[in-house]
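Section 3.1: Structural characterization of target chains.
Under the original work plan, the team committed to producing a structural model for every single-chain target entering the pipeline before any wet-lab resources were allocated. The record below documents one such target. The sequence was received from the expression subgroup and is listed exactly as submitted; it comprises 154 residues.
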Amino acid sequence: MVRLVGENVEDGIYPVREALNMAEQQELDLVEISPTANPPVCKIIDYKKFLFDRKKKQKEIKAKTVKVVVKEIRLGPHTDDHDFNFKMKHALKFLQEGAKVKVDVFFKGRSIIYKDKGEIILLRFAQELEEYGKVEQLPKLEGKRMIMILSPKK
């Protein structure tokens, strides 16, 4: 016995053989929807069309998802103004394109003692770009790198 639901069919409980015959008469398939229910729930549909529609919907959902691009810019603790401005223009372009920007100051060797300089450079970077992007993650030291993430303003 199965519970039959769907269009072109009177909802109710039918023997399996009768449900299969009804599906065959309509040239459709008998598909089990809920096997755990008591009695199991079946529906008369065109299974190939059902699979096609499901695949199409998944494709549409995948197309609508936004891909987040993260561009990376690396500075040093002793970066000069010209280099700083050059990197800032690149970051500005990335933010305008809608990408996130990961700015990091890399400390080589003993330059790790200038942690405060690295933080100052990153905060200055964020301040210069505040009208185009907002700080998503404040400067944070991870090993020999101090990292800050900027995301574009909508």
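DSSP finds four helices and eight strands in the chain.
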